[in-house]
Design goal:
268 residues, alpha/beta, Rossmann fold, six-stranded mixed beta sheet, four-stranded antiparallel beta sheet
């Protein structure tokens, strides 16, 4: 386990009663959510459920209007992306924020380049980039100096995640990481997600693809119309129950549903 990470199952990030309004629209209503270290927590919900607002609140783009955020058990204020990054939270959005005209090393150190005597110190940057990719078992790239424009979708996701790991992030928020990827590339990314958790990182996976969710997630949290309608171990759910919770907030057959389905409920 990398230095500084919590033991598996320990609360890393907690939202308690978090609300967010945009004028008269209540985007988040009393959200309770716990992300634990060493586990993948999937955030599921239909369009308009509040997934993006939740991500942006954690990432510091939107400040919460009510409630409290806790990081490693202590209350914190996240008022900007800089605050979020300083805590150790990295958000990898769908666009990945990679520069196609730069190579892998340049992308991983973009804005944080190492210099020596006022010139780029390429050696240490290459070594750090190579080691980080190796630790994550990213072995499909031909060279760490190849342009990002030459990478597949799965390889680009891997570089974006490796960049976050390189800069000592402890929580990775992955926004639809397999969107528009083929079968082989999806498999690559999901394996990377599992490796992150196995190495002790907390992972928040936002995905519409329930096959992905049930393949890699340890826990699942379901949003509907800005409310957290259910959360708990993924083993307590099946695909049908998650779809029903996303669309109606309840399940039609409670006898096959092990987790509580009341708003804001949680099973640890």
């Amino acid at each position: 386990m990398p230095e500084g990470l919590l033991e598996r199952g320990q609360p890393l990030l907690e939202l308690r009663g978090v609300e967010k309004h945009f004028g008269p629209v209540r985007a988040l209503s009393g959200i309770d959510l716990t992300i634990t270290a060493g586990e993948v927590t999937a955030l599921a919900g239909d369009n308009g459920a509040g997934k993006s607002v939740t991500i942006k609140t954690i990432s510091g783009i939107h400040g919460p209007d009510a409630g409290q955020i806790y990081w490693r058990g202590k209350p914190v204020q996240i008022n900007s992306p800089k605050d979020s990054a300083a805590l150790g939270i990295a958000t990898v959005y769908q666009d990945l924020a990679l520069c196609d005209n730069l190579d892998i090393v340049q992308n991983m150190f973009l804005g944080r380049e190492k210099t020596r005597l006022r010139t780029l110190d390429e050696g240490p940057m290459e070594t750090a980039a190579r080691r980080t990719l190796a630790d994550l078992q990213v072995t499909t790239v031909r060279s760490i100096r190849q342009p990002v424009s030459s990478l597949s979708g799965g390889q680009r996701q891997s570089v974006a995640v490796a960049r976050a790991v390189l800069w000592n992030s402890q929580l990775m928020i992955l926004d639809e990481p397999t969107a528009a990827l083929g079968v082989a590339q999806t498999t690559m990314v999901l394996r990377l997600v599992r490796r992150l958790a196995e190495q002790g990182y907390g992972v928040m996976l936002v995905s519409h693809n329930l096959n992905d969710v049930f393949e890699v997630a340890d826990r699942i949290a379901v949003l509907r119309l800005g409310h957290m309608v259910s959360q708990g171990p993924v083993s307590n759910y099946d695909r049908q129950s998650v779809v029903e919770l996303m669309t109606t907030g309840t399940v039609s057959d409670p006898s096959r549903f092990k987790a509580p389905a009341q708003p804001g409920s949680q099973e640890n």
